[in-house]
Amino acid sequence: MKQDSERIKYAIEVAKKAHEGQFRKTGEPYIVHPLAVKKILEEWGMDEDTIIAGILHDTVEDTPLTLNDIKKEFGESVAFLVDGVTKLSTARNGMRDIDTYLPETKDNFLRLMIALGSDIRVLIIKLADRLHNLRTLSALPPDKQKKIAKESLEVFAPLADRLNMGRLRVEMADLAFKYVDPRRYEELKNLIEKYNKSAAKSLQKIEDEVSAALKKEKINFTISGRVKSVYSLHKKLAKHNQNMGEIYDLTALRVIVDDITDCYLTLGVIHSLYTPMGGRIKDYIAMPKQNGYQSLHTTVITKDTRVVEFQIRTKEMHEYAERGLAASFYYNEQKLTENYKKGKIEHLPTNLLWITELQTTAARLREGKKVDLKKLKLNLFADKIFVYTPKGDIIDLPAGAMPLDFAYRLHSEIGDHVVGVKINGKMSNLNKKLEQGDIVEILTSKNQTPKTSWLDRIITPHARQKLLRALKLKSDKKEPPIPPIKKK
Ligand code: MN
Predict the structure, then answer these.
(1) Is 61 considered catalytic here?
(2) Domain stops at, among 180, 204, 233
(3) Phi-psi region of 450 (alpha: psi -120 to 50; beta: other; left: phi over 0)
(4) Which CATH number characterizes residue 446's domain?
(5) What pTM was estimated for this model as a whole?
(6) pLDDT over 70 at 227, yes or no
């Protein structure tokens, strides 16, 4: 454990004094929270200015300490970071109603990120702050728990994903999901545990077989199991119509090797042992994901007909997949922070296009040029919308989805009997595109039957498939069979 520098020690002293007499909902002295944030930032390997800003992140908002004091004592850079974090949290104030509040938060986030000149370290501090608040969420009243948990699932976990901070994303999403839908959380958690228990023996055998084969090829490696997170299983099941049979990565084995050549060699070794499933080999090394994630993925069928996913990557790729942008601060701390200060962007560790775009936009704004926010392809949340049932359950749908997509997602019985829809309490029609945060209530009638015209009011394959099936059943039942076409 690294010793605290004099500057860090001093920051702790200043924060302690500022928060004197304040307490958290857990009953502990308030300083426990900034110190926990400090610890998280250290674990992420962040630079000293970021750590100091983490220690002071709540002082300007909640104590007599001013930004000027911080500038005087700790310098411009720390003050800039604290100011950024303060602005991010005040942007969330006064929006108590979760349904208007979430979309607005997202909007504000974008605007703010641009206004802040996109020093990503502000976001990293905010993520550490949120992580600790989630870890201690049980101390809050239930309505606040739900609100913070929902916001974490919809704003912060996706942000962590965009920064490729995989470990953070998983912890955040699972902590939050537990509060958003406790029953489902327990159900899926048990399911995963049961599955892993039953698969343990055969997985060990596969691990041994692969290890022996890799040793024979003189490849340096480590191999370990990776457990799927509860929330990602939940999302995947939703996408695949709750069909467990379509989840191929419930268990995955991760092989970490020395270099890229060994990655491809390892893939070959695995394919010589087991049968690869068609269409499930993904080369994220040649074609990294948008967030910079790199790995080879393949799903194979083993000799005892078990389906197992393998993820193959180098140590650097692994570190980057787990810690994302934070990891590169660790490797390249000085250079990166220097370049951020100068507004340079060429030393970003990977091709994070959205950050580049953010920074370019920030620069244009600083120069006083006009920027059309709508044209930004930042796309932080745009591929997906989250809407709610009247009971507050979150349903995620692709952007552009309509009420029938929503209805069929709930249940085919509901979809088949739709007579109308209320969006945010008002009657609406089935052509209406759903918007982020809408509360959608589907009205049904027993006497309603599915209509062919509905095919134009559906965008998800899942709903389409359900509707086609229902239409076929209906025509089989009621209409006389189509006479065969006479051949000449
Ligand atoms: Mn805080």
Answers:
(1) yes
(2) 180
(3) beta
(4) 3.10.20.30
(5) 0.67
(6) yes
